[in-house]
């Protein structure tokens, strides 16, 4: 009886998994495609009006104005995109898409591991390529993303994936290229539920917490310089930070924390540094530029955290950092981060309203993100020889009113834009349109 019950449970789980699986991944490109007549937003600051982009075998073969770019129409599929816009696939920075399916269901969450120091944790092996949440990104042009672990002082390594795959092995573009650190906060708030003052006050344990992190790094460095007769997986996972093959991503928000975090990384001999969140990064923008530190800026659509900050403080941050010459990308952190990842282009659009040009705003979620993640040789811009990961929008993709994606490609593969949400929309649209008065 128990064996029968187990079989029934397995069958039910299999049926459920089949029902919720995403669209079947697109097949490999077999014929050249030319998109003709569109406005081409290259992602590097340049725009080509009335242009042509040709791609085959998953890569861009030619790109330029229609008047000076010849094509052999008989040998390829032609997409007439006059009046439309073509963009590189948007890239999610510091995301957790594919690590959690339903927040309220613990069994569907692979977001973090127990413990304080987990440099050996690899987020990529927990990535669910069949996530319904992941597939819902594509209709907004969000085609790539960073898969980042959470929790602890050292969370583990991130990888970069494309959002149309059978499994994590198919999805991954760059594996274990970044180590993620949660820098101690130099301030803390009182626990109001215990009657404490909820205002900000200096963190009494800040120096102790920084020392613990410093000691861990020093121990890891010593271990990796030794003969390694005894393996220590966490320490050995950090070797890439010291030889330059991994980038360090440090979550820090306050001015002191950002400065201390950068100085700490430099003292450890780490040169590839990115600040994640960076709520007060604009206050130390020149310092970040001088130290060649990039920033994955926290979600633009958030309220200011401090009483003396302007109401539009978070909207203006990107402009201040870009003007200082800092390499900046946008990330969708905060509550409902995974769901909000689809709004990435609209965060970029908000920065246009607060000072950036549209070309600069586009770079925040294409070229800049690709550079920080180390995938810019193949992704992030529309250039000959790079991956044909792009999409066609009916209008301005940074405007929620006009970002209507009609075609999308990853590595030249023609993607399905159907999702669970679009299927429900069609289903109930048909139901109510057929109802009699």
Automatic annotation (TrEMBL):
Name of protein: Amidohydrolase family protein
InterPro entries from the UniProt entry: Amidohydro-rel, Metal-dep_hydrolase_composite, Metal_Hydrolase, Metallo-dep_Hydrolase
Residue span(s) of domain Amidohydrolase-related: 348-397
UniProt key word Hydrolase: yes
Gene Ontology molecular function, alphabetical: hydrolase activity, acting on carbon-nitrogen (but not peptide) bonds
PANTHER family tied to this protein: ALPHA-D-RIBOSE 1-METHYLPHOSPHONATE 5-TRIPHOSPHATE DIPHOSPHATASE (PTHR43135)
First and last residue of the signal peptide: 1-21
Organism: Winogradskyella flava
Keywords of this entry: Hydrolase, Signal
Taxonomic superkingdom: Bacteria
């Amino acid at each position: 009886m128990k064996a029968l019950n187990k079989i029934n449970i397995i069958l039910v789980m299999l049926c459920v998994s089949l029902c919720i699986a995403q669209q079947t991944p697109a097949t490999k490109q077999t014929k050249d495609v030319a998109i003709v007549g569109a406005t081409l937003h290259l992602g590097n600051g340049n725009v080509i009006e009335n242009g042509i982009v040709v791609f085959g075998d998953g890569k861009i073969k030619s790109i330029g104005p229609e008047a000076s770019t010849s094509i052999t129409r008989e040998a390829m599929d032609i997409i007439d995109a006059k009046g439309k816009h073509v963009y590189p696939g948007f890239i999610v920075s510091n995301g957790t898409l594919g690590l959690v399916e339903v927040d309220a269901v613990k069994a569907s969450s692979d977001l973090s591991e127990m413990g304080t120091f987990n440099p050996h944790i690899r987020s990529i092996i927990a990535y669910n390529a069949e996530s319904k949440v992941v597939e819902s990104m594509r209709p907004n042009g969000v085609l790539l993303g960073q898969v980042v672990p959470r929790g602890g002082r050292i969370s583990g390594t991130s990888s970069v994936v494309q959002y149309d795959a059978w499994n994590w092995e198919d999805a991954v573009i760059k594996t274990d290229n970044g180590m993620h650190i949660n820098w101690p906060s130099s301030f803390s708030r009182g626990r109001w539920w215990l009657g404490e003052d909820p205002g900000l006050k200096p963190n009494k344990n800040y120096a102790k917490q920084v020392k613990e992190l410093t000691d861990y790094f020093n121990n890891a460095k010593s271990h990796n310089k030794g003969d390694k007769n005894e393996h220590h997986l966490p320490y050995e996972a950090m070797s890439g930070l010291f030889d330059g093959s991994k980038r360090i991503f440090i979550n820090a928000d306050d001015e002191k924390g950002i400065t201390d975090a950068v100085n700490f990384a430099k003292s450890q001999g780490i040169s590839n540094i990115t600040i994640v969140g960076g709520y007060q990064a604009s206050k130390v923008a020149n310092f970040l530029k001088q130290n060649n530190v990039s920033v994955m800026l926290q979600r633009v659509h958030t309220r200011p955290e401090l009483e003396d900050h302007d109401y539009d403080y978070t909207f203006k941050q990107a402009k201040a950092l870009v003007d200082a010459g800092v390499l900046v990308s946008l990330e969708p952190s905060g509550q409902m981060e995974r769901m909000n990842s689809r709004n990435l282009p609209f965060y970029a659009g908000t920065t246009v309203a607060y000072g950036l040009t549209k070309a600069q705003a586009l770079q925040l979620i294409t070229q800049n993100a690709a550079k920080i993640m180390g995938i810019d040789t193949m992704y992030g811009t529309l250039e000959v020889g790079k991956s044909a990961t792009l999409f066609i929008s009916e209008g301005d993709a940074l405007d929620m009113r006009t970002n209507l994606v009609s075609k999308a490609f990853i590595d030249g593969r023609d993607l399905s834009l159907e999702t669970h949400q679009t299927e429900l929309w069609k289903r109930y649209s048909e139901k109510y349109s057929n109802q009699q008065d």
